[in-house]
Amino acid sequence: MLGIGLAACARPAGNSGPPVSSRSDGLDAPAAGQSERGAPAPARLGFGRPASRADIERLDIDVMPDGTGLPPGSGSVAAGRELYAARCALCHGTTGTEGPNDRLVGRFPADSFPFGTDPSARRTIGNFWPYATTLFDYIRRAMPFDAPGSLTSEQIYSVAAWLLFANDLIPEDAVLDARSLPAIRMPARLRFVPDNRRGGREIR
Q: What is the pLDDT of residues 73-82, one digit of tens each?
């Protein structure tokens, strides 16, 4: 690679003129620390500010499988049914199965997991997601599609409750909160293992 780079800037044999540029437009690239106009590049660009603790806390909203990060509040299946109809059904269908966007509801007989052998198998919350808490995390970040981040914690708990009920994972009178949501055991939970590889293909 070094030889190629040197050759690109070398003079042709018998030519005492200036070095040939390695750029296709015939212009030499600026030296390190210089701009295209030749002026020294500034050490700082002069905009932005250090992130405050409040800035970080506003963005630090991830929810872990054990429920770490879940906020206070609660939601019911009944409230979630109404909210889903108003804010989610347009994209996912009235029962979570019709689309046109991702199918959210559905399980396979005996909770089988055919995704490795059947490429046509449709992934849903009920047959593929390993953690119930991911539902809260994803809805809070990305839903509804036309106004992500607009739902309150109570509304998110409620929508999650209805979706889990629709997948036959909780009873209709269930109320979800930071304690009950992570306690839900998803059918696909044991289908996933931590990826602890360290430089090889084997999972220990």
A: 999 999 999 9
Question: What residues pair up with 185 in beta bridges, in sequence order?
Answer: 131
Over 90: is that where the pLDDT of 187 sits?
yes
CATH 1.10.760.10 fits 67-191, yes or no: yes
Q: Residue 48 and residue 46: Cα distance in Å, rounded?
A: 7
Note the pLDDT tens digit of each residue in 32-66.
Answer: 555 556 788 888 888 889 999 999 988 889 999 99
Q: Which of 120, 190, 134, 142 is nearest to 163 (CA)?
A: 134
